[in-house]
Automatic annotation (TrEMBL):
Belongs to the binding-protein-dependent transport system permease family. LivHM subfamily. It comes from the Bacteria. GO terms for molecular function: transmembrane transporter activity. It is found in: Cell membrane. This is Branched-chain amino acid ABC transporter permease. It comes from Micromonospora sediminimaris.
Amino acid sequence: MGPGGATARAHPHQQFGVRTVTVLIGQLFTGVSIGAVLLLIALGLALTFGQMGVINMAHGEFIMAGAYTTYVLQQVITAAGWSLLIALPVAFVVAGAMGVLLEFLLIRRLYARPLDTLLVTWGVSLILQQLARDIFGSPNVQTRAPELLTGNIALPGGITVANNRLFILALAGGAVVALTLALRVTPLGRRIRAVVQNRDLAAVSGIPTARVDRMTFFIGSGLAGIAGVALTLLGPIGPTMGTNLIIDAFLVVVVGGIGQLKGTVIVAFALGVLQATGEYLTTLSVAKVMVFIAIVAFLQWRPQGLFTLRTRSLA
């Protein structure tokens, strides 16, 4: 063959190396997207658990409420894009109101009794699941994703990135930024930080701790509603969808450090990448076991979590 007809072929080792890099980048993005979902779910838990020590097993049902809010809005607003945008603030308010109601009727009587809050909120979660079955039926339902979020973005090297995963990643980042600014800049955020550091001192300083607790529960539960909206982009929704997610969210909060937002962010993405890598190398079940073993080993080494809360308590 002449020079014009010669075909350059990559060495087999080079081809293998390119494929390996492509797969690793793809799995890294998958892990980051899983971490973004975990982060959205865990943000609200980190806020309420860190301030009040409440083990809220009904948090998963607030996620479900956000998902069903999207479903209901799509029955009224036929344009999927508009219904999704409207669902974000509406789901925040709906789930937040449910959280305030739960806090006012039950949880405020059980502060400093975490095991009691676990049992009570677990019972509430079962009631909410049955209520969802009565209203929407037991079978899962599907929502429509906006056309803009149904495709993929092709990157060099044969890597494809799903638009819906990118949206969830951006949504999680926006939620973290908004929550951080709210805690650092607003008067409510300063009150929340004061109550976390020393509840008794905050109370005698004139801060209405009961009102702060209620607003904290509203924000934390509202974030769960936003997570529910995001999950409608990944698959069908049903009455038990929150139950399958709540344990992973609690693990993120505990490993990150109680009440530590930065720890929650780091651990959510770390566990997402670990799970995605484990699924690629083995199976979903084995990957779950790997993640659990890694969490147990880490907590044996650092039982207080990745970061610890600095307080002004003298105890």
